[in-house]
Amino acid sequence: MRVFVTGASGHLGSAIVPELIAAGHDVVGLARSDAAAATVTALGATAHPGDLDDLDGLAKAAADSDGVIHLAFDHERMRTGDWAAAIIADLAVLHAFGDALAGTGKALVGTSGTLAVANLGRPGTEEDAGAPGGRTDAENAVIGFAEQGVRSSVVRVPPITHSTLDRHGFARTLIAIARQTGVAGYPGDGTNRWAAGHTLDVGHLYRLALEDAPAGTRWHAAGDEGIPVREIAQSIGDHLGLPAHSILDDRLEAHFGFLARVIVLDNPTSTAATRRILGWQPTHPGLLADFDHGDYFTTPSPGN
User: Fold this and answer.
1) DSSP string for 116-150
2) CA distance 11 to 285
3) Whether the Cβ atoms of residue 11 and residue 17 lie closer than 8 Å to each other
4) Which of 208, 74, 65, 76 is nearest to 150 (CA)?
5) CB atoms within 10 A of CB 240
6) Is the pTM value of this prediction over 0.70?
7) Residue 58: is it exposed, middle or buried by C-beta count within 10 angstroms (0-12/13-18/19+)?
8) By C-alpha distance, which of 277, 269, 232, 280 is closest to 116?
C-alpha cells in the first residue's frame, strides 16, 4: 500500500514510518523543510516537500496514495494558546483529504486524543464521542467521512506518549517544569488519572487502523489506562531529588503554564475494543517503568 503520512518526521512519525515500511508499505512523508526531508528519507520513506497550508498539494498526494495517516498539527499555536487558529487549519487539511478520498474506500487515519473523553466519571471507551469543540471537531469530521465512502478512523493518543523518541511531549514538559520550579507538582489531591502509551505501541496501532479499521471508528492507544497524576509527579520528583507537592488552584497557570487546563483532567481510558477488534496488544514499558529505565532524566527536557 502506498501511504501518505503528514508529520512523518515528528515524534509519532518516527515510529509509524518504520512500522509501515517493515510491514511492506511504501511511505511518502510530508516534509516542510530540508531538515524534515532528510529525517523522512533516513526513516526509509520518500519525502514530499510541502506544508499544511498547501491544501491542493495535500489533496493530490492523498489522491495518489492508497491511504493517508494524518499526524501533523500546529503545536506552536497550541502552546501559545491560539487553539482556534490551529483547529481551523487542521479542519481545512482534513476536508482536503476527505474530498480527495471520497468514494474510493481508501483509508484515512486521523489523530485525536484520549482527553476527548476525559471527566466522564468512568473510563472513556472507543464508542464515546467527545463533546463538540477543539480537536474533537476534527475527530468528528474524520468519522463523518465514512458516509462519503472513505474508510476513515481515528487513533486517540494519550496525553503522555513516551519513549526515547519523545523530545518535546508532555512528559518532558512536566520534567522541565519540575526542574525550573523545584517542585514536581500535581493538581489538588492528584488522584485524577492520565492515560499513557509507549510510542512504539502507538505506532503499531496506527498501522493496524490503516490496514484493518472499519469505517467510522475510534481507537485508543493507551498502554497505561490511567495513572494517578500524583504518582507521575512523585516519580518525577524521586528521579530529580525534588519534593512532590499539590499546586493550589490559583497557582496552576503560574506553575504549569499552557498545561494548566489539561493537568486537572481525569482521563481513565478503556482499550477493550481496540484490543478485541484490532488485536492490539502493547508490549513496551509503561510510563513509570520508562521513567526508571529510559532517558528522561539523562537527556535534557525542553528549556533545559
Assistant:
1) GG-SSSS-B-TTPPPPSSTHHHHHHHHHHGGGGT-
2) 17
3) no
4) 65
5) 16
6) yes
7) buried
8) 269
Query: How are beta strands 224-228 and 193-198 bridged, if at all?
Result: antiparallel
| Amino acid (one-letter) located at 123 | P
Alpha-carbon distances of 64 from 59, 61, 127, 206, rounded to whole Å: 9, 5, 31, 20
| DSSP string for residues in 176-213 | HHHHHHS-EEEETTS--EEEEEEHHHHHHHHHHHHHHP
Residue pLDDT tens, the chain, 304 long: 999 999 999 999 999 999 999 999 999 999 999 999 999 999 999 999 999 999 999 999 999 999 999 999 876 666 666 678 888 899 999 999 999 999 999 999 999 999 999 999 999 999 999 888 878 999 999 999 999 999 999 999 999 999 999 998 999 999 999 999 999 999 999 999 999 999 999 999 999 999 999 999 999 999 999 999 999 999 999 999 999 999 999 999 999 998 999 999 999 999 999 999 999 999 999 999 999 998 999 976 555 4
For 217-243, give the secondary structure using H, E and C.
EEEECCCEEEEEHHHHHHHHHHHHCCC
Which amino acid is it at 40? V
**Alpha helix (H) residue ranges in 227-293:** 229-240, 252-256, 260-263, 272-278, 287-293
Instruction: Look up residue 158 and give its amino acid.
Output: P
